[in-house]
């Protein structure tokens, strides 16, 4: 009899995942279904999506494991709205604390049989809710009457279970007032400060990815430290925050008018964040040295800091969970159920993160019909088994391609199933995609996708990086040729592709190289600013019709505007 475990995350960036006999068979983020960025707090649609995919009902589940952020008393039937379960459910429902869910997500997805585990984010569960609090080392202070939440946690996984070794907490001062910031944040966390800097520069706490992209345009000009790094503990120098965070952006016009100021602030925050992360890994490694580290929590998505961490030599083997933010806690919930509750051994690890459902050619044909472009003279539509080679030809001709294949990626990055692709050699391709397709800020960079066989040809370190959460440096001889994927500081957030990970995408890059001599494609997510990555063929078509994407490939259908295609 099959064993099904449902893991579900009820924080922001909510998601649900389903394990069958210890393996992920489907997972979906709430934003992909609701079409609201960073949506969370309720899991009705994501649970239904997963159960429908598996063709099972709630009663077929062995176990349900859930996690949120600040709560540990979550009714099965009610959390920020109606849920898929009711109060009479007969399946055991277990609630997991926040960092423990993050940690199990890293353990379950990692290739390591044994490893240290690090979790770093903005704020986790309150100390009174933590299931992994007793017996751990904690900082030498007493908790007051305030709410003290996790900010970093350190564990060891022995191949069977997870042992907490050190946890740090700090007080959540809701709407902490400084001279310029008023944010709901964990007071001394790395993630909390990074969110605060995002709010300062962009007027939005959730634009932390933009902050990392903005930083290379700034310079370090003698500002004081932002973090106190002492006795293995990280605290924020809020007097320096008060002193320098004195011109908060009121919107994009403000940001553009004083671009240099905000770029310098982003550079300062990024540089200080890198120092804090390296210090944290260095100090925790002293407690329990190990060659392998699995890493999760929102801060783990900082690709530049991950690069600096690897280059420091403190960590020999680093695995960063691809959905390291709160969208990944559902994965941790499910693996906790499999390993800790049911006592099962680690099953084979996933060799990809394409956990969404597939859409059939019938789905594609219906979307084309509903979009009104069938038999429309403005479009050519061709269904062909030769779609990969024909797409490579279009890319070589300078066309921007929307690429929709198989199940959607789980996590924040488009990895070759829901992507916008282009030739990185094209002059001003970055500006064209930012302004005419993504409708986003002009400083934001794009990533290169390269076959693993060729990564050392183009990049200095040549690390394996299948999930775009590690940067590398472009080799000098390629910098000008591949300007579309090179950032201001000569770095690139690289995706390495193998034939096992994504065979069609691997072939596409190879076919493009055969035509151009260049084995690199510009790859960005199939969406625009403020929009989640598309989930369905209909959403992909809507995006295609409303912007400057030239060609859309849906499964083996190639759709081109104005018959502009070589067939």
Briefly, what is this?
With 567 residues, the protein is of the alpha/beta class.
Notes on the structure:
- This protein is of the alpha/beta class.
- The termini are far apart.
- The mean pLDDT is 93.
- The longest helix is centred in the middle third of the chain and has 29 residues, at 259-287.
- 52% of the residues are buried.
- Strands 14-23-22-15-16-21-17-20 form an 8-stranded mixed β-sheet, with helices on both faces.
- It is globular and about 70 Å long.
- The protein contains 16 helices and 23 strands.
- Residue share in helices? 25-40%
- Largest beta sheet: what is the strand line-up? 14-23-22-15-16-21-17-20
Shape: globular
The stretches of 5 or more residues where confidence is low (pLDDT under 50) are none
Distance between the termini: 50 Å
Please give the radius of gyration in angstroms.
Answer: 23 Å
Q: How many DSSP H or I helices?
A: 16
Strand segment count: 23
Largest sheet: 8 strands, mixed
Mean pLDDT: 93
Tell me the structural class: alpha/beta
Strand content: 15-25%
């Amino acid at each position: 009899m099959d064993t099904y475990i449902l893991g579900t995350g009820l924080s922001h960036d909510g998601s649900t995942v389903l394990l069958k006999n210890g393996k992920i068979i489907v997972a979906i983020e709430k934003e992909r279904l609701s079409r609201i960025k960073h949506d969370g707090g309720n899991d009705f649609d994501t649970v239904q999506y997963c159960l429908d995919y598996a063709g099972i009902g709630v009663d077929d589940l062995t176990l349900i494991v859930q996690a949120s952020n600040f709560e540990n008393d979550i009714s099965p039937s009610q959390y920020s709205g109606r849920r898929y379960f009711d109060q009479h459910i007969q399946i055991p429902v277990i609630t997991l604390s926040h960092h423990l869910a993050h940690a199990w997500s890293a353990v379950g997805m990692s290739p390591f049989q044994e490893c240290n585990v690090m979790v770093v984010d903005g704020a986790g569960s309150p100390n009174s809710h933590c299931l992994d609090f007793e017996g751990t080392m904690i900082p030498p202070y007493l908790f007051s009457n305030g709410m003290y939440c996790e900010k970093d946690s350190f564990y060891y996984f022995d191949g069977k279970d997870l042992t907490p070794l050190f946890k740090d907490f700090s007080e959540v001062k809701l709407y902490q007032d400084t001279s310029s910031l008023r944010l709901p944040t964990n007071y001394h966390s790395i993630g909390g400060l990074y969110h605060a800097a995002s709010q300062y520069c962009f007027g939005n706490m959730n634009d932390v990815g933009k902050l990392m992209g903005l930083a290379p345009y700034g310079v370090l000009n003698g500002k004081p430290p932002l973090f106190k790094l002492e006795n293995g503990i990280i605290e924020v120098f809020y007097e320096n925050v008060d002193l320098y965070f004195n011109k908060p952006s009121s919107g994009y016009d403000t940001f553009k008018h004083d671009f240099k100021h905000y770029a310098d602030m982003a550079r300062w925050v990024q540089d200080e964040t890198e120092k804090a992360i390296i210090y944290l890994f260095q100090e925790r490694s002293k407690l329990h040295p190990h060659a392998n580290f699995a890493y999760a929590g929102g801060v783990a998505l900082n690709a530049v800091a991950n690069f600096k961490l690897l280059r420091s030599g403190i960590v020999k083997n680093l695995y960063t969970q691809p959905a390291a933010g709160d969208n990944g806690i559902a994965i941790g919930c499910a693996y906790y159920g499999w390993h800790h509750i049911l006592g099962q051994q680690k099953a084979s690890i996933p060799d990809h993160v394409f956990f969404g459902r597939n859409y059939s050619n019938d789905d594609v044909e219906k979307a084309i019909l509903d979009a009104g472009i069938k038999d429309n003279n403005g479009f050519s539509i061709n269904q062909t088994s030769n779609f990969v080679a024909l797409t490579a030809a279009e890319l070589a001709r300078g066309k921007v391609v929307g690429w929709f294949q198989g199940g959607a990626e789980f996590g924040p990055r488009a990895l070759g199933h829901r992507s916008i692709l282009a030739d990185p050699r094209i002059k001003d391709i970055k500006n064209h995609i930012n302004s005419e397709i993504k409708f986003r800020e002009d400083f934001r960079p794009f990533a290169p996708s390269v076959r693993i066989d060729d990564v050392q040809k183009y990049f200095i370190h040549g690390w394996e990086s299948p999930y775009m959460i590690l940067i590398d440096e472009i080799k000098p001889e390629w910098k000008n040729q591949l300007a579309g994927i090179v950032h201001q500081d000569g770095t690139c957030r690289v995706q390495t592709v193998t034939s096992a990970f994504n065979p069609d995408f691997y072939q596409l890059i190879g076919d493009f190289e055969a035509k151009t001599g260049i084995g690199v494609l510009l790859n960005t997510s199939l969406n625009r600013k403020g929009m989640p990555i598309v989930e369905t063929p209909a959403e992909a078509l809507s995006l295609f019709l409303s912007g400057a994407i030239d060609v859309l490939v849906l499964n083996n259908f190639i759709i081109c505007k104005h018959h502009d295609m070589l067939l």
